[in-house]
Every structure is written in C-alpha cells, then in structure tokens.
C-alpha cells in the first residue's frame, strides 16, 4: 500500500477522534489560559481596545435566505493581546502547537482548522518521515502562520496576515523579531503580501518537517467572537492601514473602471454559466470585467480601493473589500451554500450590500439578468428596496 493510500485510510478512521480532541476544552490551551500563562511568564502585551461591530440587514436581495440572518446584530470584540509560550512542540504537517498534553488553540486559528491539521498530518507525516524530513530545526522564537486553509486567499489574508498586528506589537515592545513559520512553498500572493509588509526570506521558516521545538512561540490572540466564527473586523482595519496606501501609490488606477465585475471564468467552481449575458447587462452600466488571478496583490488592492460598485460571484476574490470606501456590492450567492462573510466585510466598511439568490446546477451558477438589472439600479443609487420583485 502506498504512503498516500495509507494516509487516506488513517485520515478517514481518525477523523471522529480528531474532531473530538480539537473540540474539547480539556485538550487545548484556551484563550483565557493563554492570557494567564503570558501574564505569569512576563510576556503579556495588551494593545487595542474592547470594541463591537454592528451588522445591519442586507440592503437588497432577491429571495430572503434565512441563514444570512445569523450575521445580523451587534457583536462584541475582545481586546487583543500577544504573548509567548515556552518549550512548544510543533507536530504535524501542517502542525499543531503543543505544550505539555495540550495544544494551543489560538496558535492555529480555529477548531475546524485544528481538526483539518490533524487529518492532513495523518496523511502527510509518514511521507515526511520516509523522505528524511521528519525533524525540523529547533527555533528560538517564532510565530505560526501555516495551517490547512492557508493557500486560500481569504484565509491567508484574514487569518494569517492579520496575526501580524500582534507580531508587530511584540517587536515594538521587545525589540526582537520572531521568525514566521509559513508553508513549504509560498504561492505568489503569499510572497507578495509579505513583501508589502516588509518581510523577506530571512524572516521566514518554510515548514517541511513533521515536528520541531520552539523555545518561545509568539501567539497573537485570535478574536473570533462573531458567530459564525469570523476574524475581528478591527484586525482587517489594521491590515488595510498597512497595505491600502502602498498599493494606491504604486499602481496607476486610471486604467481601472470604478464599476468592477469580478469574473470566475477561470475558476473550477461557482462560475457563472450565463456569463456573457451577465457581462452584457453590466456593460450597459459601465462595468468592466477583471480576473483577479491575472493581477498582482497590489493591483487587486488598488482596484478595490478605487471602486464605486463591485459585482461578483461568491468567492475569495471579494476579500479585498476591506480596502474599499463607500462601496456598493452585489454578490451572486449560491442558494445551496450560503455564506455571509462578504456581506459582513461590506457592512464593516459602511458599504451597501445586496445579493442575488442563484440556482446552482452542478458546481456553477445561473444569474437572473432581470434581477441583476433591478439590483444594479438600486445599488448605483444606494437605494434600499429590500426584497426585489421577481
């Protein structure tokens, strides 16, 4: 049996166990415990404030999707902090951060990610050991950015780059710059975004091992009080402050339309089946189509920063809404996979937001062009019609 087949079988068998382990408060260092440990060892750095974010109802929609209501309301956000945990073992590929018999929850984003880290590790660790890459170097001081979802643009931006806010606070307080533990091979948007934040190869450790030890693991708190769990919008604000002006200063935005259609024609899923008809409607309103995979990180940030209205299928391409001002957003929402994260991002920057409930044959979508035109009229005038008539 191949290592890959063995890993897959082990993963299937151990999934319930991994879920039980990562879902139990008795097996992890909770956020409160992390705070207490950092207090006791003298590494605690408090910064920022206790805050809250209020998410109102969507401004327009074609059919009310009940699950969208989960995000509506006022969400308290805790005060951020950063501290260290001593003598940590990093185990797995991607790794969990272990101290004693517990794993450090805030070091690896969320319980879903922690579970996936275990499953992927069961599949991948035998390969690493057999290839001679089982043990990594001992690190003096580091922060963990690598996890199972990190190759997705949204998860990289919202759940890895935002952690650097705490790292920057730590550097300012201590004068020490911890290594950033990243994946074995950075993709282009990961590399470029780190460069934009003034991190270079010397600051990074590529995780290619199955385990190693860290003398001091720097752990920024993950503020995920919004339910369903979403990263703090105030961390998004910090990242916006770091990147938005840099992008606008280095990109000629005169070549962009301020009415933007994000196409997924080159994606594997959630493509718009009647894309040409949709583009025809949008063209009448002055929209231009962009494929973000063909653009650099600086270009996509600048594109969003200068936009007045953005139309897009649900997907990570909407992550850069954090860089917008006074934006109107129309999202094509697959009606069998409702996710309000970009609804929240639009509202966090004070934008207008509407969604089109789209049928989803196979893994793609069909957009009703009549509904689209009615919503465009509302969005461009910033009207609030509520449910559009069909």
Descriptive notes:
By secondary structure, the chain is an alpha/beta fold. The chain folds into two domains: 3-40 and 81-222, no CATH class; 243-387, Rossmann fold. The chain is built from eleven helices and 18 strands. It is elongated and about 60 Å long. The model is unreliable at 1-19 (pLDDT under 50).
Summarize this, please?
This protein is 34% helix and 22% strand.
Topology:
Elements: H1 3-22, E1 28-29, H2 31-40, E2 45-46, E3 51-55, E4 60-61, E5 73-77, E6 81-92, E7 95-99, E8 102-104, H3 111-130, E9 139-144, H4 153-159, H5 164-174, E10 179-182, H6 188-196, E11 204-206, E12 211-220, H7 233-250, E13 259-262, H8 275-284, E14 288-290, H9 297-305, E15 309-313, E16 328-334, H10 341-348, E17 352-358, H11 369-380, E18 386-387
Parallel strand pairs: 1-8, 4-17, 4-18, 9-10, 9-12, 10-11, 13-14, 13-15, 15-16, 16-17
Antiparallel strand pairs: 2-6, 3-5, 6-7, 6-12, 7-8
Helix pairs in contact: 1-3, 7-9, 8-11
């Amino acid at each position: 049996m191949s290592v890959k087949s063995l890993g897959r079988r082990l993963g299937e068998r151990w999934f319930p166990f991994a879920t039980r382990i990562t879902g139990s408060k008795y097996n992890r260092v909770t956020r409160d415990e992390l705070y207490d440990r950092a207090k006791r060892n003298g590494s605690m750095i408090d910064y920022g404030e206790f805050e809250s974010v209020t998410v109102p109802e969507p401004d327009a929609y074609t059919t009310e999707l009940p699950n969208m209501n989960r995000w509506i309301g006022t969400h308290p956000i805790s005060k951020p902090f950063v501290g260290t945990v001593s003598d940590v073992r990093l185990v797995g590929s991607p790794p969990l951060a272990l101290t004693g018999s517990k794993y450090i929850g805030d070091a690896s984003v969320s319980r879903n990610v922690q579970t996936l880290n275990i499953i992927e590790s069961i599949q991948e660790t035998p390969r690493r050991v057999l290839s001679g890459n089982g043990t990594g170097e001992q690190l003096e001081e580091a922060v963990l950015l690598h996890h199972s979802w990190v190759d997705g643009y949204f998860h990289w931006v919202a759940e890895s780059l935002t952690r650097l806010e705490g790292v920057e606070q730590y550097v300012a307080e201590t004068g020490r710059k911890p290594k950033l533990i990243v994946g074995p091979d950075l993709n282009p948007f990961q590399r470029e975004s780190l460069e934009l934040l003034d991190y270079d190869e010397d600051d990074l450790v590529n995780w290619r091992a199955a385990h190693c030890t860290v003398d001091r693991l720097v752990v920024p708190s993950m503020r995920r009080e919004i339910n369903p769990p979403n990263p703090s919008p105030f961390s998004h604000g910090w990242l916006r402050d770091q990147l938005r002006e840099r992008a606008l200063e280095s990109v000629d935005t005169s070549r962009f339309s301020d009415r933007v259609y994000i196409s997924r024609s080159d994606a594997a899923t959630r493509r718009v089946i009647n894309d040409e008809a949709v583009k025809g409607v949008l063209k009448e309103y002055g929209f231009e189509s962009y494929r973000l995979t063909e653009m650099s990180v600086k270009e996509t940030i600048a594109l969003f920063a200068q936009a007045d209205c953005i139309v897009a299928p649900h997907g990570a391409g909407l992550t850069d809404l954090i860089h917008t001002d006074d934006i109107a957003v129309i999202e094509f929402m697959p009606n069998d996979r409702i996710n309000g994260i970009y609804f929240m991002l639009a509202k966090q920057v004070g934008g207008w937001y509407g969604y089109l409930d789209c049928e989803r044959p196979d893994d793609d979508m069909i957009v009703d062009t009549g509904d689209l035109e009615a919503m465009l009229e509302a969005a461009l005038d910033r009207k609030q019609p509520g449910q559009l008539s069909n």
